[in-house]
Amino acid sequence: MPLFQAIILAVVQGLTEFLPISSSAHLVLIPWLAGWPEQGLAFDVALHAGTLLAVLLYFIRDWIELLLAGFGIRSNAGMTDADLSWKRRLFWLLVIGTIPGAIVGLLFEKTIEDRLSQPVPVACAMIALALVMWYVDRLANLERHMPQTNLLDSIIIGSAQALALFPGVSRSGVTISAGLFRRMTRETAARFSFLLSTPIIAGAAIKELPKLIHARHAGTLDLPLSTLFIAIAVSAVVGYAVIGFLLRYLQTRTLKVFVVYRILAGIIVLLLVALHWGTSR
Fold first, then answer.
1. What is the pLDDT of residues 188-242, one digit of tens each?
2. Distance, CA of 7 to CA of 233 (rounded, Å)
3. Which of 5, 94, 133, 280 has the fewest C-beta atoms lying within 10 Å of its C-beta?
4. What's the gap between Cα 9 and its chain centre?
5. What is the DSSP secondary-structure string of 177-195?
6. 208 contacts 44 by C-beta, under 8 angstroms
């Protein structure tokens, strides 16, 4: 893989992992449109490592507070009993919310990727979730904030996260939509979505790491380590910036622009398929 291609795909991963437009869709569609070969396992691991680094760095203080609070420990002397209580509850809600996605990923990830990582199902998934996002984004009384999250929120949003295994759905898109369905504010839904994504992204990277190490020792790694490290760095920097952007954006704006983008992108892909794009390559 040429370095410029690796950088482009790393930028795409950093942008689309956290914007509600689906990283899996874009990593299928962009190589398809450009006529590039599949990226390969090593590069996928690098991209996941980059976005994991981004979300960990952005929420490092939150995770330290939540982890300590989860076991009843105050991270600072100024934390009130009320803050300790809701942060302890939030930590365990995030643990519970991670379970559905982890189970579905372990059981069905390979099958889903093999059967649905094609332009038509990806485009259909992009359009379908766009309609869901459009509906929930118009709900009134989006007033619930992070301290008000409860077990039902965790179960519903965590179950929605399991759907993100389908290419084109978008982890952030489906979990933010589930949060809006539960009447969370847009910023709260996005923040909960990003916190919930951290263990899943970490699990995806860790799950494939032994295969990457084996390929390295076997001499079958088809990418230089320098390219992998550059991809990790680019994906992390872009992802970090996108997290901050989206949290600020949703404080005052709706999901409309992402809904429109998903629908247009899906329609364009379906039209290109109908015109037999890429069949002669």
1. 999 999 999 999 888 877 877 777 777 767 666 677 888 889 999 999 999 999 9
2. 10
3. 280
4. 15
5. HHHHHTTB-HHHHHHHHHH
6. yes
Q: Which of 46-60, 64-78, 96-110 has the lowest mean pLDDT?
A: 96-110
Mean pLDDT of the chain: 89
Q: Among 228, 255, 199, 170, which residue's Cα sits nearest to residue 55?
A: 199
Q: Determine the length of the chain.
A: 281
Q: Is the dihedral of CA 273, 275, 277, 280 positive or negative?
A: positive
pLDDT at 278: 59
Identify the sign of the CA torsion 54, 159, 270, 137: negative
DSSP-derived letter for residue 90 is H
Q: Tell me the DSSP string of 18-66.
A: TSTT-HHHHHHHHHHHHTPPP--HHHHHHHHHHHHHHHHHHTHHHHHHH
pLDDT band at 107; cut points 50, 70, 90: confident
Tokens of 269: 């892909």
